[in-house]
Specification:
about 270 residues, single chain, binds iron/sulfur cluster, nine-stranded mixed beta sheet, TIM Barrel, globular, alpha/beta, 9 strands, 8 helices
Length: about 270
């Protein structure tokens, strides 16, 4: 499918929960954020149905995000349901890695192709400060488990204040090269002020070639991360919500005053 700016839209990012086991300072306040009511959260059957419809309309790349997707109970079953959908060429997940030691092999067995793991620093104190609740050693053992399980490629998502020339980013890059991993440098974003940049090592944030739609955990199809436009699949049905999002996808992002990263999945 194509939007009105002739961009090919073939990528669906699915946030399966707004909950997370970390409190990263650039994503959530320390006290956390009011969570979505449980009844508002899409069931696995609903997520699979929206994905099936999206695939029938041209999506072939799907990424599972959160919050932290691995805190969603039964996540391995959802991966199996999505991997059974014919037409998905690329099934990936973005995770903070805290629970990956436990889940990497079951996810690979269920059909997940690859993972992106958040890693902003190799300094344990800085890691603790940024994530507020995480331990660097858990992220590192999660990375090792993902490689061992054959998830490939394993990419590191490194959030930077401005650029990959920052000391922590350089250390993450050296670690990635040493470990045979790919790394993407993501400039810090601010939804309310509309600050965002192009992902170094990826294609996020490049509006000219934007190929994505997002499904939030409470069923909103979002045409753009930096926009307040949402179309709810429970109200409109999956096809109508996707068509409306496609038809109203902005040429480029502006601001998002309604959502938080934890319920969009970046
Ligand atoms: S800001 Fe919107 S249009 Fe630009 S890359 Fe992000 S999602 Fe696509």
């Amino acid at each position: 499918m194509y939007d009105r700016f002739k961009r090919k839209i073939n990528y669906l990012r699915i946030s399966v929960t707004d909950r997370c086991n970390l409190r990263c300072e650039y994503c959530m306040p320390a006290e956390g954020i009011k969570m979505l009511p449980h009844d508002d959260i899409l069931s696995f059957d609903e997520i699979a149905e929206v994905t099936r419809v999206a695939v029938s309309m041209g999506v072939d790349k799907v990424r599972i995000t959160g919050g932290e997707p691995l805190v969603r109970k039964g996540i391995v079953n959802l991966v199996k349901m999505l991997s059974d959908i014919e037409g998905i060429k690329d099934l990936a997940m973005t995770t903070n890695g805290m629970l990956l030691t436990k889940f990497a092999q079951p996810l690979a067995n269920a059909g997940l192709h690859r993972v992106n793991i958040s890693l902003d620093t190799l300094n344990p104190e800085t890691y603790q400060k940024i994530t507020r609740l995480g331990k660097l050693k858990d992220a590192l053992s999660g990375i090792a488990a993902a490689k061992k399980a054959g998830l490939c490629p394993v990419k590191l998502n490194c959030v930077v204040k401005k650029s990959a020339d920052e000391p922590d980013a350089k250390q993450v890059k050296a670690f990635a090269e040493e470990q045979g991993l790919q790394v993407r440098f993501i400039p810090q974003m601010n939804l309310e002020t509309g600050e965002f940049g192009i992902v170094d090592g990826g294609d996020g944030g490049n509006c000219k070639i934007c190929n994505r739609l997002r499904l939030t955990s409470n069923g909103n199809i979002m045409p753009c991360l930096f926009s307040d436009l949402v179309y709810n699949v429970r109200e409109l049905g999956a096809k109508e919500a996707i068509l409306k999002a496609l038809g109203n996808k902005p040429r480029s992002g502006s601001v998002n005053s309604m959502s938080h990263f934890n319920n969009i999945g970046g």
